[in-house]
């Protein structure tokens, strides 16, 4: 088969991948709306709410893992998991920073000062509620997968991961509660939420199928395809959502949702892969990914807490996160060759 023919075979599946992941994101947004209402009704702070709303935000990754496990392509889901937990943080923070570079954000009376400081303001509680528990989850993930006696993911790990998610969600929901709001529930939004779940399931199934066809055409491994093809495409709708949140004045929500998303992906999201048992064949790539995953999470929390007199990200810190992401891409490509 000629190279031109291969590229023509690739284009339809690339279109399927794009359409499928945008469909899944649409479904996740419908599912997220009632969760945001619950956050306000239960009096959960914005930072802590990321742990709850992250269940919807992470649903495309959960769906990809479930679909890849079902189709016998667990490496696709595993690659997406690694990619989303390393590359999404710098991309979302950079998107939020650019979205905040306007003269005024709704509800932020000090925004002009933040512009002068070149600062993306984030609530301090994002560190203790989101970043520190996320680092603990990364440690648990490494403990379950790296040591030789139980290397990889097994069905028993599914129970441990479910318990870890329950603890993570509980510590967020019961920390720093505020006064709840009265909200009205409509049958239409519940119907849309149910439809959203169906859209996530269908969209992610076809996304995995498209990834399988793309990696076959390109002659690359499925884990690399999930890491460098499916994962970046899946981030595109999330970047649009982050931009919209920050432009509406919800900077903390826009910045912290990515970590809440990742915490769900590394616990609840890995359950389907654990149930079918996932061996780790390329330990070099995997350990490299773990190192960068921890470094990215630690940098995220450290920059918010220590980087400025008021908590948030300065411009040089945003650029540092992007540089760290580029270093990972280079290292992963080197290991893959």
Set down the secondary structure blueprint.
Blueprint: H1 3-42, H2 46-57, H3 59-70, H4 74-99, H5 111-117, E1 119-121, H6 125-145, H7 155-173, H8 187-218, H9 222-247, H10 251-265, H11 271-275, H12 283-306, E2 312-314, H13 315-336
Antiparallel strand pairs: 1-2
Question: How would you describe what is shown here?
Answer:
The chain is mainly alpha-helical and 337 residues long. The chain has one domain (3-336): Up-down Bundle (A middle domain of Talin 1). The chain is built from 13 helices and two strands. The protein has helices at residues 3-42, 46-57, 59-70, 74-99, 111-117, 125-145, 155-173, 187-218, 222-247, 251-265, 271-275, 283-306, 315-336; strands at 119-121, 312-314. Helix 4 packs parallel to helix 9 (222-247), helix 6 (125-145) packs antiparallel against helix 7 and helix 9 (222-247) runs antiparallel to helix 10. The two termini are 24 Å apart.
Protein structure class:
mainly alpha
Describe the main β-sheet briefly: 2 strands, antiparallel
- Indicate how many domains the architecture comprises: 1
Give the fraction of residues assigned to helices: over 70%
CATH architectural category = Up-down Bundle
Q: Over the alpha carbons, how many angstroms does the gyration radius reach?
A: 20 Å
From N to C, what is the helix and strand string? Answer: HHHHHEHHHHHHHEH
CATH superfamily: NCX, central ion-binding region
- In spatial order, strands of the major sheet run 1-2
| CATH top level label | Mainly Alpha
